[in-house]
């Protein structure tokens, strides 16, 4: 299941399953802040999309909270990869760790709490 935000980001799902997911996107000029670096909100959005593929999709759910550490900058033209791994699950809840890289360089680390919902 593709999320609309993935289209907006230009992201593609590389792999998903068994509590893991990998998403990639290429940084463009529309993704940068005033200093010309990849905007933190775009990094967070890619990481949150990867978290959803690891812990929620194809069911219904949401990210309840997440913390991000911005580690290094990224620039237009770079391909970034978000790798999400579910570290533990209980009931309808999961903790997911996401590492975002530009090549071999870690640019951000996220830990998020996801919960499945029912409609």
Automatic annotation (TrEMBL):
Keywords: Hydrolase. Signal peptide: none annotated. Residues 36-105 form the Thioesterase domain. InterPro entries: Acyl-CoA_thioesterase_PaaI, HotDog_dom_sf, PAAI_dom, Thioestr_dom. PANTHER family: ACYL-COENZYME A THIOESTERASE PAAI. NCBIfam families: unchar_dom_1 (TIGR00369). This is Thioesterase domain-containing protein. It comes from Microbacterium pumilum.
